Each structure stands twice: as C-alpha cells, then as structure tokens.
C-alpha cells in the first residue's frame, strides 16, 4: 500500500553503536545486483530485507532460516522458464507471509508476472480473519451521512489527482459539533494548490467552522476506509486544534546495514500551527479495520489528548511511517528483478510503550461494522461518536 511519502517526525540521531547480528554473511547492495539466475535474484532480495527492514527485533520470522530453506529452492529454478518464474512468485509469497510490517508489498518487473497481484501479506491475513468485512461504501460518506446526520449547509467535494480520487465531506451536527471526513491524506497539498478543487473547498469550510463556531461541543474526524497518505497532514490538521506541542510516541530508524543497527528512540509529536484554536471539547477519531498508516498515526495522536477519543474498530496495523530511503538507512528498495519492496522506513512506538505494528490500534469505544444498519441508512459508529459528545 503505497501511501506515506513525506515525513515530519523529528529524529535525533546520536549514531551510537547498536547491536548487530550477522549469522549469514552480507552479500552486496541489492541495487547493484545483475541477476543472471534465480539464486542471485533471491540473494539480492534477502540482503535488501536483512539491511533495510526495520522490524527485525519484533518480527517472529527467522530470517536466517529463510535463507537456509529458500536459497536451495530458488537455485533450482530457471529464470527463463515461465513455470519456474511463477513457482518463484509462490516462494516469495510463502517466505514473506509472516512479516509483521503491514505496509509490506512486493512487486516484480518480470513480464510473466504482469498479471499477478503484488504480494501483500497483511491484506491476505485481513481477508482470512474471522471478522473481515469490506470497506464502507464511499457513498455512505458522500450521500448518507450529509443527508441523515448533518445540518443544512454541509459541504462535500472531490478532486482527481493523477490516478487517485480524493473525497471530502464536512458539516455541523446540532450546529455545534464539527464533522470532517476525507478519503486520504493529501490535505495540505490540495489546500495549497493555486487551482480550486472540491476537497479544498471542504477543507476551507471545516477550518472556517473550527475558527468561528463560538461554543464547539465536539469534533469528529472520520478516517474510516482511509488508506493513509502524507505525513505533513498531521501538523496541518491536528496542529489547528492544539495549543501546545503534543507528544504521542517515539520513532526509530535503521542507522547501519546490520540487521539490528537501530537509532535511539526519538519523540514523535504534533506542533501547533499559526492561528490554532486550542480545543478542549471532545475530539473523536472514527476509524475502522480499513484505516491504514497515516489514519492510524493521526488516531494515536488524537487519542493522546486529554479530550481525545477513538470510536470504531481496531485499525489495520500499518503504523510505521514511510519516506524515501535517502532520508534513512532503511525502508523500501528495488533490485534489477524486483520492482519494489515497499516497507516502512521507521518503527513507531505509542506513548504507552507498545508497538501496534501488525496488530492495529484498539478503540476505547468499540463499535463493530454492521452491514444491516448501513443498508437501512444508519451509521452506528457515527451515532456512537455523536452520543459520546452529547
């Protein structure tokens, strides 16, 4: 899931010597490989993961055993045989199935795999889980909520950006509670564009209401089904509602090629923005099992407020921030055979000392998905948030 592509977390890199385990000799930079056979394809991938993956100290996958098990299997394959290429795809799927990184996504350049899905272990686990449900239909946010729950005068809009569409809805409830839904995090970029767009109009409406509503009784930020996006939005949005720096956790990166060469933990925080209004009324995050990445980070930040709440379902579990690996010595990489190993650049630890990667962030008020209610035009999760404010 390719969502997070900017960073705002401050990392104090002290360049301390970290522990490093090298049970299998390091080979070469994966980007320098010229893979003439499947053994070399596997070597470049294994080495890249060994050096760049940030979760080795909490992941249960034995990476050395993966090498011992799969290197001989890949060595038997013919890189120029379509059946063997598909068998190699199956091996990659098997060996990565248990990886805890829920951003992880593996795609290939091989033309024989152009019709194959990228390998995404977290999605496969999600589909197989007993409480699996499809994402909430976007029309629930765009049509049902405005007409059934918001006061007259609500705003909604959408805009297309390259191959992605962004949707936003905002309005008031009983004139004093503010509601804001958006389908992905690109708020700052869309707001600062010179050209008008539907999402920008909704944002402006929400910010005007945030500034000018005299007695705000609550704010509901709805990130259900939101797959994430720009980390710059954390300050841009939540920074409008706080009066002082909000510390909500810690981040850590890789600082060396060794599997366990980590930087020290550094604070993760939100900074108040110019003209911010310090909101003391309840701020409620609505999130669900399809709230991913930046949606989870924002939910964690809001939940850290004394007036912050989280209503809905346990989130996806991909909360390690992503950015280009030119900024850190870890994260995503490519080889001459692999199009992209999409993986987190940083590990995030919440203020309670727990890491929620792979398991999702839990709500303090759980309201499960209810398809029958949606079919009847009712949104029980939103109703629970409104009830909490009242």
Automatic annotation (TrEMBL):
Q: Which residues form the Tail specific protease domain?
A: 166-368
Annotated compartments: Cytoplasm
Q: Name one GO molecular function term.
A: serine-type peptidase activity
Task: Write down the superkingdom of origin.
Answer: Bacteria
Q: Which family does it belong to?
A: Belongs to the peptidase S41B family.
Question: PANTHER family in the record, alphabetically?
Answer: TRICORN PROTEASE HOMOLOG 2-RELATED
UniProt-recorded name of the protein? Peptidase S41-like protein
| Species assigned in the record | Chitinophaga niastensis
